[in-house]
Amino acid sequence: MCSLIIERVLRGDFTLIAEIGVNYYDIAHLFKITPMEAAKKMIDEAVNSGIHAVKFQTYKAGTLAVRNSPSYWDLSEEPTNSQYELFKKFDAFGEKEYTELSRYCAEKGIEFFSTAFDFNSADYLNKLMNVYKISSSDLNNLPFIKHQAKKDKPILMSTGASSAEEIDSAVSEIRKANNKPLVIMHCVLEYPTPQEHANLMKIASIKSRYPDVIIGYSDHTVPSDTKEIITTAYLLGAVVVEKHFTLDKTLKGNDHYHAMNPADAKDIIERIKRLNIICGDGNLTVSETESPARQNARRSVISARAIKKGETITTEMLTYKRPGNGISPSDFNKLLGLKAVTDISEDTILQWDMFEKRF
Length: 359
Fold this sequence. Notes:
The protein has 359 residues and is an alpha/beta fold. It has helices at 4-10, 24-31, 35-48, 61-64, 83-88, 95-108, 119-125, 142-149, 164-177, 201-209, 228-235, 262-279, 291-297, 332-335; strands at 15-21, 53-58, 111-116, 132-134, 155-158, 182-187, 214-219, 240-244, 300-303, 318-321.
């Protein structure tokens, strides 16, 4: 089975991933429905928004963090100050539930995958998804990276809070076991990320340092009306963008306050489409729409004075004026030394049939 994400990016098509994560628990409470119903509702909204893939997070609190692990998020938005306690609230789903979600996504025509946070999850998710995602938090967890790379599937890897040497080590570990497409995603591990901390030029640095990988961006900034963070990331080379997804950005807790909603997603996709139109294909050729202006705004070789039949052409007889439907000034030297085969009036656009042929 092929990954829709990888198929798109190998064509150079912008790909937007909705990081549903575990936000569906709060959506379930908001709409008074079950977490499974909420997860499917979010998938439906992602499909309707034109999003290309949805990603979840698969973990059990006990295998992810010790009981007194400190928080690293905005406590005014998520007041839980222990990682273990936060993760415990959102770890009810297991293999059965993710199997159901994977099948539901297949029915809806959107790609499903989930970030595994333990070996058991990485194992059972293997048959449910076509790509693996390595979290920034696990970038130095080389044994776990190796375990996932051995599944021999494409990998998306975020690089938040990582040094170049750590990224090198992770890439090396992946490549020892896996030659499938690799997406390296710039990321800032700050929730939310202030725009002035986005450091989008890291995208260019990653692109330069790792020329043989696909470039992406995992965004934690608060969405703006203009979406300039994501559009700039795309222009710098991030063809894959992952962003947290919610149905209500005003919800307290976890990943709602810096997430995109369906309207944001639609706007992002439309803005990227517009950018693609504006940027064009970059080919150094003359476009058809430029042809009239090219002909009229370019110059031709013009007779600076009257030229009699039989006269030999010299520099002093010539000047250069618009329009460009005569002999091009770039062929000026080819005229010198030729004889006129007809009388030519002053200020005439010169054509090749006015002169003898040189053999």
